[in-house]
Amino acid sequence: MNNIITLAVEAHGLVKTFGDNRAVDGVSLSIPAGSICGVLGPNGAGKTTTINMLATLLKPDAGNAKIFGYDVLRETQIVRQLIGLTGQFASIDEELTALENLMIFGRLYGYSRSDSKRKANELLEEFGLGDVASRALSKFSGGMRRRLDLAVSLISQPPLIFLDEPTTGLDPRTRTQMWQTIRNLVKSGSTVLLTTQYLDEADQLADNIVVIDKGRVVANDTPDGLKRSVGSSSLRLTVKDADKAANAAHIIKRVLNTKVHLAEASELIAPMDNTDKLTDVLTTLKDAGIALSAVSILQPTLDEVFFALTDGGSKDKDDEIK
Amino acid sequence: MTNTIIIPAAERKLKNRVGVGRAISNTSTIAYRALLKMFKSPEIFVDFIVLPVMFTLLFTFLFGGAISGDIHSYLPIVIPGVLLMASFTNCTTAGSKLREDVDKGTTSRFKSMPIARIAPLAGSLIADIVRYAMGGITVFTMGYILGYRPEAGISAVIFSILFITFVAWSLSWVFAFISLCTKTISTASAIGVVVMFPLVFLSNAFVPAETMPDWLQYSVLRINQLSRVVTTVRQLLAYGSTGADFWYALFGALVILGAFIPLTLIAYKRKT
Ligand SMILES: Nc1ncnc2c1ncn2[C@@H]1O[C@H](COP(=O)(O)OP(=O)(O)O)[C@@H](O)[C@H]1O
Ligand SMILES: [Mg+2]
User: Fold this and answer.
1) Positive or negative, the Cα torsion across B88, B93, B95, B98?
2) CB contact under 8 A, B18 and A77
3) Buried b (16+ CB within 10 A) or exposed e, B21-45
């Protein structure tokens, strides 16, 4: 490995077909060591299948992949010593306690009983599960299970961690906790590849986002770059008195210096690059005596990202107020 | 991970193979896990206590009078039969835990780890040995309570349990194979019941073959190999010796192992 930047993952043209379904259709990735790569895509895009090929669970039909320079097909056992995998669905034993679950994996990695126990207890403390270490999992919440499931793949302290949809199905608070955990992982020197269906999650965590759709990479960019290519966030507001909508639209147009769409009779939508201008808009509207019943700022949705990436250009069909 | 710093990949000592020592240690860890789960699940109570006790009482009191005139003289006939039934019923569910691991994704995680590939399979089936042996122990305890005192003594009892456990274990690979090939776990256990019950009842497990018409006697004793297992255990317990049936049964079990260990391995690798 003489690269100046060590690549944790380097994959070229990965293909996997199931019958005549090309689940992964030529995916290439490169992830520098110490970074977080977010693989973003809707259900069925091929995220799990891609991870499975990188984590030596599935043989690619074409293409190749290296993990820290080791080939996933030829140096399988070495690759397995360098990765930790947390699958999309928790794979821990319900009948056992959190400590027992972790210790079994420690033993499988070849640590002695006492080492396994020590590492398990350390991880449980770090993941806020110390108090429930010897309780059966059947009493665990979804968030606790997810954290334990993640802890299991960290017991061998692998330099590369695959997280398949780590926050799908979690409530917002648990989700934020999980994000913090993932950030800490990278601080301690790990590389993380995570998949997600949420743009905001990729945006929050990833240094680089790879968008895949129908098995193909449709974009590979930094979060900012990706958002630029999609367009800015947008301001949406509803005026109390529908008659004043046109007037309000003119004011917003003047303040933000952009086009304004009239979505419904009293609802206005305008692109907004700089959210600081929100106060200007609101004070000007207030001075003009226009009352509002709702204001919100919308981030581009994953739908819009895909729309822009796969079908870009043919947008702009809303009614426009001159 | 506040205090641990990950060792970079380039500074690690790495080997591209799993040694034999590691394979054995992995297998025993998985077996330990299976046992831990076994003793914490409510099914254990059914497998170890309810079924063997129920079978012993049921068959002794149901058939005892009709077949042997009284319950006490039926015990030497029925206890080996119940022993077979209890262990073999348990072995039809071999592989269901394994299949559960496959369906839940635990096997995928195992596969992504640097452990021996066969460890999850072997560990799970080795742990099952405990289930077959425990059923046998309960049956003999029940027999003892009902007044059964085998002529050949305690060593014959122990040898019988070992023998039946080994035969059940060899059959468990067949059922593990089936459970890895069917679409769902419930299909596999249905097949287990459908295959096992006729085999047990069309053997000499509960009825001495001498009372049957010639053609049936022939099928029961010569075609249904389970009868050889029952005959062996009866002889052992009564005379403390074994005959040709023992060798037939042992040979059969070894043939099954020889065929189904590789088949199960292949099915397991295809499934994961
Ligand atoms: N083992 C499999 N057999 C057949 N088809 C599969 C299998 N695994 C995944 N697929 C198909 O491959 C496509 C991609 O699936 P997947 O990688 O799970 O997507 P994602 O994780 O992005 O939701 C889907 O159409 C799915 O139905
Ligand atoms: Mg998936």
Assistant:
1) negative
2) yes
3) ebbebbbbbbbbbbbbbbeeeeebe
- Reported as a single tens digit per residue, the pLDDT across A247-275 is 898 998 888 888 888 877 788 888 777 77
Which of A82, A104, A107 is facing B9, going by the closest CB pair?
A82
Please state the domain count of chain A.
2
Which pLDDT band holds residue A315 (cuts at 50, 70, 90)? very low
Is residue A292 domain-resident? yes
Write out the residue range of the structural domain in which residue A173 sits. Answer: 7-228
pLDDT given at position A271: 79
Residue whose token pair is 């995998």? A85
Percentage of chain A surpassing pLDDT 90?
A: 50
| Residues A151 and A263 both lie in one domain | no
Burial of A239 (0-12, 13-18, 19+ CB in 10 A): buried
Query: Could you identify the residue written with the tokens 């035969």?
Result: B167
Candidates A74, A77, A182: best to mutate against B (most CBs of B within 10 A) is: A77
Of the bound ligands, which one is closest to the alpha carbon of residue A44?
1
For CA atoms A243, A246, A251, A253, the dihedral sign is positive
Check whether residue A224 and residue A275 sit in a common domain: no
Residues in B 110-139 with any Cβ partner in A closer than 8 A = 110-115, 119
- Given A208, A228, A248, the domain boundary residue is A228
Is the four-CA dihedral B123, B126, B131, B134 of positive or negative sign? Answer: negative
* A80 and A104 belong to one structural domain: yes
Same domain, A198 and A260: no
- Say if residue A24 is in the same domain as residue A102: yes
Contact residues on chain A for B22, CB-CB shorter than 8 A: 110
Same domain (yes/no): A246, A111: no
Which residues lie with the beta carbon below 6 Å from any ligand 1 atom? A 18, 21, 23, 41, 43-49
Provide the token pair at A165: 């949809």
Say if A22 falls within a structural domain: yes
**Which CATH number belongs to the domain containing residue A36 in this structure?**
3.40.50.300
Specify the residue with its C-alpha closest to ligand 1, atom 17.
A46
Q: Are residues A240 and A205 in the same domain?
A: no
- Let me know if residue A319 belongs to a domain: no
Ligand 1 centre to CA of A47 (Å) is 8
Q: Is the pTM of this model over 0.90?
A: no
Q: A104, B32: Cβ pair inside 8 Å? A: yes
A312 touches chain B (CB under 8 A): no
